[in-house]
């Protein structure tokens, strides 16, 4: 039996991504990121990401990878986007092996995020969202954060 999945695709339709239905609505695994690099890479106010185990994600089509080495943290992120229409598809942080951040803007449904990162870079006129955990930059590596990462690795989300 295969678990039911939900799919999104880039603007031109060449690349599609499916994730487990169960993971899709996990508010605590959905984040907005207001950092400058996310903004520039999407031409938008914030990136909108679903964090989950890479093995649970199926990508069809061949995205182009941009190695983003000018990040605030110093880590080189792999940013995947459609080579034809430019839609951001996902990003991978090599510090967190086995995890992936899928860009939720390519899906029809838009589930609510549970966290916001790099709020220090958010413009003052953009208000915080009710019930969303705010972080000035990256979350600190607290016990809570480590447990959350472990749950993502285990796929017990
Ligand atoms: Zn495309
Ligand atoms: Zn970011």
Automatic annotation (TrEMBL):
<dbReference type="InterPro" id="IPR011057">
    <property type="entry name" value="Mss4-like_sf"/>
</dbReference>
<dbReference type="Pfam" id="PF04828">
    <property type="entry name" value="GFA"/>
</dbReference>
<keyword id="KW-0479">Metal-binding</keyword>
<protein>
    <recommendedName>
        <fullName>CENP-V/GFA domain-containing protein</fullName>
    </recommendedName>
</protein>
<dbReference type="GO" id="GO:0016846">
    <property type="term" value="F:carbon-sulfur lyase activity"/>
</dbReference>
<feature type="domain" description="CENP-V/GFA">
    <location>
        <begin position="6"/>
        <end position="126"/>
    </location>
</feature>
<comment type="similarity">
    <text>Belongs to the Gfa family.</text>
</comment>
<keyword id="KW-0862">Zinc</keyword>
<dbReference type="GO" id="GO:0046872">
    <property type="term" value="F:metal ion binding"/>
</dbReference>
<keyword id="KW-0456">Lyase</keyword>
<dbReference type="InterPro" id="IPR006913">
    <property type="entry name" value="CENP-V/GFA"/>
</dbReference>
